[in-house]
Specification:
The structure is a homodimer of 368-residue chains.
Chain A lengths: L12 H8 L3 H9 L6 H14 L5 H7 L5 E6 L5 H16 L3 E6 L4 H13 L4 E4 L8 H8 L4 E4 L9 E5 L1 H14 L4 E7 L3 H18 L4 E7 L3 H13 L6 E4 L2 H14 L8 E5 L13 E4 L2 H16 L8 E4 L2 E3 L11 H9 L15
Parallel strand pairs in A: 1-2, 1-3, 3-4, 4-5, 5-11, 6-7, 6-8, 8-9, 9-10
Antiparallel strand pairs in A: 10-12
Chain A binds a DNA duplex (16 and 16 nucleotides) through helix 2 and helix 4.
Chain lengths: 368, 368
Amino acid sequence: MARQGLNQRRPSIHDVASHAGVSAATVSKVLRGVATVKSANAKRVFEAVEQLSYRIDPLASELRRSKRRIIGAIVPEFESEFFGSIVTELERLAEQRGYALVAASSRESETRETEILERMHDWRVSGVVLSPVRNEHGPAAAFMKTNGMTGVMIDRVIASDTFDTVSADSAAASAEVARALVARGHRHVLVIGLGEQAATVHARLDGFRSQAQAIAPDMRIDVILSESEVAPLRAALRSYFSKGERPTAVYSLFLKGTLVALSEFRRQAWHCPADISLVGFDDAEWMQVTFPAIAAVVQPVRRIAMQAMDLLFRRIEGDDGPPRMLLEPCKVLMRESVSPPGSDRFRDQKASNGLPPQVGAISCPLTT
Amino acid sequence: MARQGLNQRRPSIHDVASHAGVSAATVSKVLRGVATVKSANAKRVFEAVEQLSYRIDPLASELRRSKRRIIGAIVPEFESEFFGSIVTELERLAEQRGYALVAASSRESETRETEILERMHDWRVSGVVLSPVRNEHGPAAAFMKTNGMTGVMIDRVIASDTFDTVSADSAAASAEVARALVARGHRHVLVIGLGEQAATVHARLDGFRSQAQAIAPDMRIDVILSESEVAPLRAALRSYFSKGERPTAVYSLFLKGTLVALSEFRRQAWHCPADISLVGFDDAEWMQVTFPAIAAVVQPVRRIAMQAMDLLFRRIEGDDGPPRMLLEPCKVLMRESVSPPGSDRFRDQKASNGLPPQVGAISCPLTT
DNA sequence: GTGAAAGCGCTAACAT
DNA sequence: ATGTTAGCGCTTTCAC
C-alpha cells in the first residue's frame, strides 16, 4: 500500500537542469517563455519537466521576483449565503487573472480582523478585499493605510477617503421597501437591526425613514437596534411585543433579524402576513419555498465582487487616482410575507375551505 | 492624503540588524528565541524591531526551513451553511496550531478539485483537508496519493485505503429517520437525492432502506436520484407527483433536495405535514423558524472538523499507521414537518378557529 | 556569544 | 544562445 505523506523531496529546478543537461537559468528561461533558447534545448527541458513531473515553486519564484500573486479576502463569516457567494466570486475573479485568493474570516471581531490583515501583509499579498466587521473607519482600514497596503473595502462601508469602496445601494433599496409598505397601507413599521454594523445599518435605516416620512408623514417608525449579538435583539423584540406594540409590518435590516422576527411571530402565534408583514434585507434560497415566501432585498453579489476586483487590480497596476465609491443597485422582491395590514386575505380564503392558503401555481425556481 | 499601495519596501532582517548594530544571524536567533544571545543585544534587537515595525516574512522563512505552515482546505462550495461552518472550524483549528488555512472551492467539479490540489502541492502545504466532490476514489485522491501529499478526506467519503476519512454517520442517522417515520405510521416514503455525491448518498439511502425494511417489511420506498444538478431532480419529482404518486413522506438526502421538495409541495398546493411529511438531511438555521419547522438531520460539523484536523496533524507529525475511518454521530431533529400520515391534526385544529395552526409557546433559539 | 558563509528554490543581469 | 553569478529574505551550521 502506497503510503501518504512520504514528503519525498520534490525535484527542484536544478534537478531538471541536470536532467536536461543545461543550466538552471536556461530551464527558468524556457519555463518563463523567454524566446532566446535553442529549440532543441527547450525540448529537452520540457522532457525533463515531464519526466520528473516538475512544477515551479510559485512561492520561491515570487520571493525572488519580490511580488506575490496572492489576493487576500477578509469576510466577517463564511457561514452565510451572502459572504459565501462573495468569496466564491472573488476566488473566481482572482484566479481569472492568475492570482490565488486566500480567504479568512474575522468572525465579527475587529481584533481578529487586524490580525488577519497583519498576516496577509506578512505574506506580501498584492491586494486585499476587506469586508469590515463594522465600517470603513475601523482599525483594519487604519492598518492598511499605515502600511501602504493596496485594498478595496466592500459591503459594510459607505465611503472612505483612502480606499475604494463597493457596496449595495442600501439606502435606495430601503426607500423602495418604504414605498412598497406605504403603498400597501402600512403606517406603523418596526425596523430591527444590529448596531455594530454601523455603516450599513444606518444607510438602510435612514433610507427607509426619509422615504417613508416623505411620502407618508403619518407613518410611525419604531426602531430596535441591538449590539452585535442576536440574543439581545430577540429579547428587545420580545419585550417590545409584550408591551402590546402591534406594528403592521417589520423591516429587518439584516438576515439574522429576519429569522429572529419569524421566530418571535411564531412565539406570539401571529400569522405572517395576515397578522403582520415582514420584509428583510438579504435574500436566501429558502425564502421562496416557505409559506409564506419571505419578501427580501437581494444584494447584487456578483456585481459587488466584480467591481471590487476591478478596482483592486486597477490599484495593483498602479492607478493612484482618488478613491472611488461604488453603490450597486439591489432588487426588492415583494413576496407573500407582505400584504396590506389587517387585510386578512389569507384568513378569509381559509374560511372557505378550512385550509391554510397556498399559492399553488407559482413556480419557484431555486436557481439564483 | 496618504496614498494607499505605496509598496514601500518593507524592512528586512538586515535593516533590523544594522539598526541594532548586530548581524542578521543574531537577529534571527533573537526572534526565534535561541537562548545564547547576550540580553543586552537581544534588547537592542527588540527595540529595532519595534522601531521599524519589522515582521518576519513567513514565506521566506519557511522557504529556508523547507516547510510551510499552511493547511489547504478544499470544499465543493462556500455558499452553504455546512461547508461554511466546516471552513470556519478548520480555520480556527489550523490557526490554533500556528498554521494558516488556505481554503478553496471546487465548485462541484472534479477537474477543478485536482487543479486546486496541484496548486496547493506547488505551495508545499503541510497537509490538506479535502471534501471531495464525489467520493474518496476520485482523481483528487489519486493525485494526493501519487504525489505523496498528506491529507484527510471528509464528508462525502466512506473509507479510503490511503487516507484518513471523517464523516457523519449517515447510515445510522438515516436508520433513525426510518424508525421515526415507521413509528408514525408511514408506509410509503419517497427518498430523493443527488447521484454524483455517490459516497454519502448511498450510505444514507441504504441506511434508510435496510432499517425500514427490517422493521416494516410492508414499507414502500420510492427513490429519485438525479445527476449533480438540481433542475433534473425537480423535473423528476414533478413528473413523479403528476403520475399520481402520493407517498406520505419525503426524505431528502441533501439540503437542496429539501428546498426542491418544499417548492414542489407548494406547487401541488400540498400542506406539510397534513398532506405530506418531510425530513431532510442537513439542518439550517431557518428550518426552525418556518411553519412548519422542518425536521432535519444535524451533522456534527465541529466534531468532524476537529477530528479531521487531529488526524491530519498526527500525519504531519509522522504517524504512518493504517488509515483511520471515523464516523461521527448525527442528531435527528423531528420537527413539525413530520406527523402521522393523514392525521390532519393541523387541519382539524384549523377548523376550530379558521386559522392555520401555530405552535405558539415554542421558543426557537437561533443559536446552534 | 556572535557573525561569516552557505543555501532554501528560484530569477535576472551580465558575461561569454 | 547559454551559463555564471548574485541575491529575494530568511535560517543555520560552524568557526571564532
